[in-house]
Amino acid sequence: MPGVDNWLNDPLNVIQNIFDNSGYDHPEKVTEYFKEKLSSQISLSWIPSLNSTALHNLNPNSLVKLRCMVQDMYDPEFYMGVYETVDKTNGTVHLKSGRYQDVADCSPNCEVDFNGKQNKTMDRQTLYCVPIPGENTWVKMAHEENNQAKVIASGSTSAGRSKRHRDEDMMTEISTSNVNAMQSGVHVGTHNEDDISPRDETGDNNTETKRQRPDSETSTSCSSHIPNLNFPLSGETGPACIVKIYENLENKVMVNDVFEFIGVLSVDPSMAQFKATDSDGNTLLDPFSPGMEEENAHCPPPSLVPRLHVILANKLQHNNPLLPTALNSYEGTLVQERILTEVNTTRRNLVAILEQALFGDTLAAEYMICHLISFVYCRRDVVALGKFSLNLMGCPTKSEFPQLLNKLLQHTVTQSHFLPMTVNNLNTIQFAPKKDYTANRLLSGILQLSCGTHLVVDETVMEAGELNANGVKNLTALGIVVRWQKVEYDFNFHKQEFPCDIPVLILSEGKSLLQCDCMVPLIPCQSDASLAEKYSGIDQYLTPALLTKIRAYLDAVRLMEYTLPDSVQRVIEEDFVEMRRQDPAHMTIDDFHVLLILARLLSLSHGHKELKRDFWDKVKIMESERKIRLPQHSATLNI
């Protein structure tokens, strides 16, 4: 059997050997082979990650992995799944597998017979994948530390293999400085039909000519070709990638899903297809071919957007590097049990931290914990069960409180995004994704987030102003996310709803503009410490060991199974009837739904997989205290 170096550094040779032995049934054999090789966490750590390894340090056609979100799905791509090559010296015919590669594998003395009788055309699905939006720094660093792969790029391809000429390392055509400038210059809300910059007006495709130009001129020419990477959030770091999947993939892929893909890296520069245009923007090369914008968007330079041919795919239930990928596995069960042995201590510490962060308000800290572990566990008709959007009222205006609280959340949750809800942001930023039919791609918006991404909305910066049409549309889109956990994608002629799971925390002085599941007025306790001193104390209290426990705790309890015992269910039904009889105006169906969700979250936060009577009684007390605060807060603000 091939050694580690073979299947890791030259997987295509291994795949060809399997094809030679198994013929047309080789896809299943390939999957089985690599599953066996990667059955342990140690072997997985040997694979270099595109997320943390520079592309120029990776060998072409080697095995790599990528942690990403599916941002768009392109049309299927046709390719030669099986093809014949002919030895030019003796006419011998060899049968080759075309899977997991973009360029035909052909030795120096052979040529591809495009009319071969055994040739077989197949199709594969093409995805455009981006770094997980809002992934916090500690997550990136932890994943990088878990990866043991040490990569030294090779200047040559694998022994015995000869690919088509690579045009003398055409990847150098786009300099590293230009790539970095492009990635840092992607701004949300600037998407339009001109996102894909055309080639320079000269239409010069000669690589050597470009190399003879002065550096400044070359940089200008290259930067005009760099496509918009289409990240949902500005400031994201990490690679965009065109991922190609095959019919033997076990998981169903949908937009916004988060995956870890393992496959063959393809960076052949011939895959970049830029078309020359005249001064009027008309294509000069082939007037009958697809539009230039679509070609440029779907075939960017592989030095900027590499290709990945997927052998194995794992749909991620979570993105926490402190937990096993599969929590229902034996290893996952052991980790969860270890976390649950310290759940009470960890929870007390977290309550103390949040209490300090929320001006000493213990009740608000309890609601905040429930919010942090909330997620949509089921959908019934139009209702998303499990969501728990939270509006903290009474937040100080013209203060650093929203930024400081957001920074605290960035250190504890895996994904988050901070949105100052100013009039300018509402009017200028693109919230919902929109279809660009010219380039045939989906333009991202800041609401195109993966499940479990916490969205912190700062309404304290809202000032008087006029919303334009885009601002009204954005405010409506945000309200739909908060209320229904759906995002309306704009397809020009119609809008289509896509389900989402985005826990929304709204910080406001008075009642939010958005309809939330729960409003909690803050009641600060008297303290002589300033806001900066409070959060400085939190930083000192949050030791690395405690921070690790809290990070693991939040996702471990969030993903636990939960049941409602029949005995407790009868008690809840009796309580609801009694509360409705005593005060029907303050115990509506929505109020009862909040009680049920809150009871579920409170039980999970204590590490219990089923609801106990004590937690149900505590939830009723919490809700009673919260509702007492509401008229008091309204009277204080005169609203």
Short structural summary:
The chain is of the alpha/beta class and 639 residues long. The chain contains 20 helices and 19 strands. Helix 2 (11-22) crosses helix 3 and helix 12 (362-372) crosses helix 19.
Fold and architecture overview:
- Helix content is 36%, strand content 17%.
- The protein has 639 residues and is α/β, with parallel strands linked by helices.
- Strand 16 and strand 17 form a beta hairpin.
- It starts with a helix and ends with a helix.
The counted number of beta strands is: 19
Any idea what the radius of gyration is?
A: 28 Å
Strand order of the largest sheet: 1-5-6-8-7
Shape, please? elongated
Give the uncertain stretches in residue-range form: 154-224
Strand content: 15-25%
Query: Into which percent range does the helicity of residues fall?
Result: 25-40%
Cα separation of the termini: 75 Å
| Helix and strand composition category | alpha/beta
